[in-house]
Design brief:
By secondary structure, the chain is mainly alpha-helical. It has helices spanning 5-15, 24-31, 37-45, 73-84, 95-98; strands spanning 22-23, 58-59, 88-89, 92-93. Helix 1 packs across helix 2 (24-31).
């Protein structure tokens, strides 16, 4: 059975390791379409499984958290990332150090 775009996005987000983050664009590319960055945001906003799909590990390419984080706002997203061991510089994720290195094959 063919997976829809949200299912493909959720599959990618489930793979982001603890202590790492991915950008919306990176998740989009890994899910099959580099143009889905905005779709990734929509999918994460309606995440059906907060425990199993760690949407808080997805940030902007600059390392900014979402002001509209669906599970408690930006402050909650920062708390969850810090609890995972993700480091911040001047209020954003240190992408050079904490961005997940998985790329599209």
């Amino acid at each position: 059975m063919k997976k829809n775009s949200y299912e493909r996005i959720y599959d990618v987000v489930r793979q982001i390791p603890r202590g790492m983050v991915a950008s919306y664009g990176q998740v989009a590319a890994l899910a099959g379409n580099r143009r889905w960055a905005r779709v990734v945001g929509y999918a994460l906003h309606v995440n059906p499984d907060e425990e199993g799909i760690p949407c808080y590990r997805v940030v902007t390419k600059e390392g900014n958290v979402s002001r509209a984080f669906a599970f408690g706002g930006a402050n909650r997203q920062v708390e969850l990332l810090k609890a995972d061991g993700v480091g911040f510089i001047d209020g954003h994720v240190d992408m050079e150090r904490y961005q997940w290195k998985k790329t599209v094959c």
